[in-house]
Amino acid sequence: MIKSIEAKVMLAHVKQPDTWFGLKYNMNLYRGCQHQCIYCDSRSECYQVENFSDILYKENAIELLANELARKRVKGTIGTGSMNDPYMPIEAKIQLTRRALELIARFRFPVHIITKSDLVLRDLDLLRRINEVYTAVSFTITTADDQLAKRLEPAASPPSARLRAIKILAENGILTGITMMPILPFI
After folding, report:
1. pLDDT in tens, 89-106
2. Inside any domain, residue 110
3. What range defines the domain where residue 128 resides?
4. What is the CATH number of the domain that holds 163?
5. Of the ranges 2-6, 82-86, 156-160, 182-186, which one carries the lowest mean pLDDT score?
6. What three-state secondary structure class fits 115?
7. pLDDT mean over 129-139
8. CA 132 to CA 90: how far, in whole Å?
9. Is the pTM of this model over 0.85?
């Protein structure tokens, strides 16, 4: 099921210093995820997200984000992709991530994206603009085997496509890398 919801806030302030990604703010444009990864910890009860396979997109996200970015006195790195993938398949149609990146570029905030999708290449023009401040894109890769990945992450881009995206982003001056999380032993 895919449906819209109304959000109250778009940027959550990161309470503890983020030593891994250097984030000041966290942004989730969607609730739930379409990738269906068998190891996903975002489905854990501790996050209290019911029906994680249902996709809820925040219909007022862009308006809220514009207001919040305009009011921020401290410009810190905005992270997206911690609770769900900002480039899951529905993003190709709804384009919330692209519209959010347009605002981030306009307000000159740095951004760090975590994804499993080569759809991020669609927004290369915006990532290059944001990179005048700072842009990083991290790709989750649990295996280099496309067939195994199809079983672990059924709706995500294959690892070969992610590795190709890393190459293209790097060739365009975007800081990129691999998040090897989770580590799945004996695979």
Report:
1. 999 999 999 999 999 999
2. yes
3. 7-29+60-179
4. 3.80.30.30
5. 182-186
6. strand
7. 97
8. 28
9. yes
